[in-house]
Amino acid sequence: MSTATEAGGKTPYRVKADSVEACNCQHGCNCQFAGFPNEGKCEFIIGFAVKTGIFGDTKLDGVRAVVVGKYPKAIHEGNGHVVLFIDEDASDAQVNAFASILSGQHGGMPWEALAGTIGKFEGPIRKKVAFKLAAGRSEITIPGSVDVRLTPLINPVSGAENEVHITYPKGGFFWDDGHVATTSHMRAEHGGLLVEWPNCFAAVAEVNWTNQK
pLDDT per residue over 177-190, tens digit each? Predict the structure, then answer.
């Protein structure tokens, strides 16, 4: 159990993780530039593999998790349906800590901002999460629930792989430098939620979260 807390009951945390995300936008992802999705709605799958992390006294190194979201409009316009999966190998303390961070209740961006956009939340659901980090060939798999497989962008003239990045020199909302790819597979299903958008935007990045200055 995490016992180190700040005034106001917020537990201090720091997390550095690799992320693999895929959504229903075109490959540039208009959300990155104009704040609104190409299709008018936002449906996404984001997987996280923690490299180093601490929440109070609980170490989060090695935790793997997947967030699936379905929003009728842009994320900031709210009413999202979100499902959180956390790897079954994580301890109870790690599951509780990671879910607490993503709930936004302990502050820190981007999660404190995203918390107010969710209309329906399910989880944390404990399942086996397989995470393969390989730039434009990264993968996220949860048997029976999630299948994301990336493939590199290809130059249509030469047939060579294109390496494309979206960068935020002053810091982005989710990440600062995203290695852009596309998806050969992109599907998630849980109960009444279904997200399926192959051949659309994907990005691999490092994320850093904290509620500390």
Answer: 999 999 999 999 99
For residue 5, CA distances in Å to 9, 37, 58, 127 come to 6, 38, 12, 29
Asked whether residue 4 is domain-assigned, the answer is: no
pTM: 0.94
- Residues 129/64, Cβ–Cβ less than 8 Å: yes
Range of the domain at 92: 13-210
Q: Which candidate, 195, 181, 211, 177, places its Cα nearest to that of 21? A: 181
Backbone angles phi, psi at 143, to 5 degrees: -50, 125
Query: Could you give the CA distance from residue 203 to residue 197 in angstroms, rounded to a whole number?
Result: 14
Rounded distance between C-alpha atoms, residue 167 and residue 164, angstroms: 10
Indicate whether 126 belongs to any domain. Answer: yes
pLDDT in tens, 150-202: 999 999 999 999 999 999 999 999 999 999 999 999 999 999 999 999 999 99
**Does residue 196 form part of some domain?**
yes
**Hey, what's the torsion of the CAs at 170, 164, 151, 37, to 10 degrees?**
60
- The structural domain count of the chain equals 1
Question: Which residues in the chain show pLDDT less than 70?
Answer: 1-8
